[in-house]
Amino acid sequence: MKRFFIGALAFIGALSILFVVGVVGLLMLAASSKPGVPSNLVLELDLQQPLPEYTLDTSLAGAFGEEPTSLRDVVEGLEKARTDPRVKSLVVRVGQPGSAAQVQELRDAVKAFRASGKRAVAYADGFGEAGNGTGAYYLASAFDAVYIQPSGDVGLTGLVMETPFARDAFAKFGVKPEFGKRAEYKNAVNTFTDTSYGPHQREATEAYGQSLFNQVVKGVAEGRKLSEDEVRALIDRAPFMGQAAVDAKLVDGLRYRDEIHDELKQQAGDGAQLLYVDKYLERAGRPNQTGTTIALIYGVGEVLRGKSQSNPLSGGQVMGGDTVAAAFRKAVEDPSVKAIVFRVDSPGGSYSASDTIRREVQRAREAGKPVIVSMGTYAASGGYFVAMAGDKIVAQPGTLTGSIGVYNGKFVTSELWAKLGVNFDTIAFGKNATFSSSDQEFTPEQRTQLESELDTIYLDFTSRAAQARNMPLEKLQSVARGRVWTGEDALERGLVDALGGYPKALELAKEAAKLEKDAPVRIVVFPRPRPTGQVLSEMLGKHEADNSDDEAAGSQAVMSSQLLEQVRAVYRVGAKLGLTGQGAEGRMLYAPVPDVRW
């Protein structure tokens, strides 16, 4: 009987593997017979949700579900369409386009598309619907025409920046935050230790918000052919319903989706069809696929030690120090690679993991492979640490960057447990064995040790940044102090070299590789996407890596579903309050990311 059950289980396992292989085979067969690009088309894009910067293990995502359209997909899709005579125009439904830097990347792509002589139209049922639609409208203002439904509104009401402060809540629960920081603007810990904005945090947050606000005003004014004073006045009068938005010259008319699509297809000519940007890119092929090789390496998410991975609770990703470092080594070893574009989108994280990546950026340059950093939504604290060794740094005007500083500490929870009737007794061997213990406060000697570590790390961070940015240490420290800047302000202070996105970074990479401006290039992502079969075999327990570099170049992907969305909402609140393991790495180079509602 025992043999029977073992044989039955083995048979079921074999059938399961055959089923998976069969599904993959059918999907590959279907992929080989995909339709082509229509001869006359209108590109379509739905921006109801922000676009991801990068998705781990895309080969597996593509095999078992709809692979998310990334920001780069849209940028390159519009680049390809500019010179494609089959593409007549672009129509975009605007909803929640994402951060300021993401919106600016999309605005740049739309303006470049329009510069080719092709029309771009944005529409929405409404921008905000009695809420804040400023970010969505800021994107829409870059288009030739903007429409809303007759029932819609334009909630161009400005920006709001919110930060939770939980000191009193921690006190009620019996949790004591014990943290130190360098320097006065390193405000990530203020959520735990304060009850409101202090003078330094308020100064930095107001300056950051004012810079973003000015960028929005300028962009809307340029797009809608209004003066900046007129835009500021409109913001103070918003929201605008229907016809009032038309009268204010914020929209070009009140139209429904079907009316907009019908008009664009009619303008495109007989037989015109709609086609999503990602489907167009998939069928037409990406630009930059032939010529000199330029590596593209992603550094997305919180910086931690180990492999890159996805977080099913936050919905985000982790920038694993081992994975990104291995990607640099692979790119350096590839003789065809003449330059590297390092796309960083990170609020920071572990000091040691950040230094692991920074070291490989430095080694790549020493090996003769120029590194151009392209910053996304943010590249702050540890995110700036991994970026600062690049030959050139490119940021969007709205990129949150800088935050050159450090914090460390712990939450003491002994009183909380006592309230619950749980008491801990400790026997320690070693004077500082309780240094990281959540049951005991720092002793005076341990507090001195903590402050000494913070001084050492801050000096290391600022010294390396000063050397990388070729400025005196005193000057660098004057713009460090843990303070965040927009990309626009960071450019003025020498923390970045240029403003722009992917196209600007590619331009500088060609220049660094001593290529002509119009020279054809082939962009290759490192680490190379793994074949679906390899991903599946690793999920089943078989590892194909021949050495530690191959092992580190992989990732730990965790697939999530819509069922996790409510849990994610709770997790995000907990993350802001430091309740979800933030700081587990110790010695954190982490930026205080303001919650911007727009």
From TrEMBL:
Entry keyword set: Hydrolase, Membrane, Protease, Serine protease, Transmembrane, Transmembrane helix
Membrane spanning residue stretches: 7-31
InterPro entries in the cross-refs: ClpP/crotonase-like_dom_sf (IPR029045), Pept_S49_pIV (IPR004634), Pept_S49_SppA (IPR004635), Peptidase_S49 (IPR002142), S49_SppA_67K_type_N (IPR047217), S49_SppA_C (IPR047272)
SUPFAM superfamilies from the UniProt entry: ClpP/crotonase
Domain Peptidase S49 residues, every copy: 113-268, 364-515
Subcellular compartments: Membrane
Pfam family, one: Peptidase_S49
NCBIfam families for the chain: SppA_67K, SppA_dom
Protein family: Belongs to the peptidase S49 family.
Name this protein carries in UniProt: Signal peptide peptidase SppA
Source organism: Corallococcus caeni
Name of the coding gene: sppA_2
